[in-house]
Amino acid sequence: MHREINGLLVIDKPPEMTSARLTAIVKKLLRVKKAGHTGTLDPFATGVMLLCLGKATKLARFFLHEEKTYTGIMKLGIETDTQDLTGHITATGDPMSITEKEIIRAFEKFKGTIRQAPPVFSALKHHGTPLYRLARMGKPVQKPPRTVHIHELTVLDIRLPEIEFRVNCSGGTYIRTLVSDIGKILDCGGHLTTLKRTENAGFKIEEAISLQKLEKMAEIGGGDTPQGVYNYLITMRKALKNLPEIIVDKTMAKSILDGKKIHVKSFTGMAQREKQPVGNYIKVVNSYGELLAVLNLEKNQDFYKYCCVFSI
User: Fold this and answer.
1) Of 127, 244, 250, 286, which has the fewest beta carbons less than 10 angstroms from its beta carbon?
2) Residue 42 annotated as catalytic
3) At what angle do helices 175-185 and 100-108 cross, to 10 degrees?
4) Which among 12, 42, 84, 181 is annotated as catalytic?
5) Distance between CA atoms of 66 and 100, rounded to whole angstroms?
């Protein structure tokens, strides 16, 4: 009997595969009606991708702007139009005389809050068309710079012309662009050759399942839902680990499932588990530990706004 799958799956994306393709493969393997990722990885990149399955697709928005951690390798001396190894060379320079101190100093300049212009080869859209398609047509569009935050940027190893590094950053940061900008500061150019996402929204690569292992589970399952996947599936309640939580009784649970207005004082006296607030969102859980809804209390409002509700 097919068991419905609703939750978050942390998967280790293999190289040479688009995020959309990986999502489609997992959707088919697990026989779920809905599946979506919470942020793309470039085809050549590997590592943590969060896939929302079934009803959990409603939660994707809560992961899009979370912090991410990467390790990567940049190659100095060559600039490309895509800012990575897949593009065409646009400029070259000589990096071999650059000192370690100059490299460390250049990396330091990008720590903290910075402005970053998204690459013209990206999935961002212009009038409904992805930028990378326009760029391939010879009609590149440069979007205005955006504010991002680099929490950590560490040089791990220097083997000129290559530099291995680790970066922890806000959602929306382009590591390709970061590398390209560092190359410009060093006056020799540079591009990204390797990238691995090791953490996304607090979910680490150690928790991830490989596509190869998932495919093997499906093969053993003979077409049914691979039972082993439940060892990796994160419930919707646990997936929203940064949201404050309210545990409600049966009466309040019914009110929420019926879509009734919920006053700000409605939860007084009920069990609460405080987390670091994310905006004004809270998650509502029933006495069985099942996620019922995510609510939002906007400024100067007396009633909660429904973000998403889950029938039980």
Assistant:
1) 127
2) yes
3) 130
4) 42
5) 32
Q: What is the CATH number of domain 7-65+203-238?
A: 3.30.2350.10
- Best CATH choice for the domain 68-200 from the list 3.30.2350.10, 1.10.357.10, 3.90.1150.10, 1.25.40.10: 3.30.2350.10
Structure tokens that stand for 136 in this block: 């391939």
> What is the per-residue pLDDT across 199-255, written as a single tens digit (0 to 9) for each?
999 999 999 999 999 998 887 765 556 668 888 999 999 999 889 999 999 999 999
Residue 212's Cβ-count burial label (10 Å; 0-12, 13-18, 19+) is exposed
- Dihedral in degrees, nearest 10, Cα atoms 133, 80, 180, 82: 20
> Could you tell me the CATH superfamily of domain 242-309?
PUA domain (2.30.130.10)
- Residue 192 sits at φ, ψ, to 5 deg, of -85, 130
pTM of the prediction?
0.89
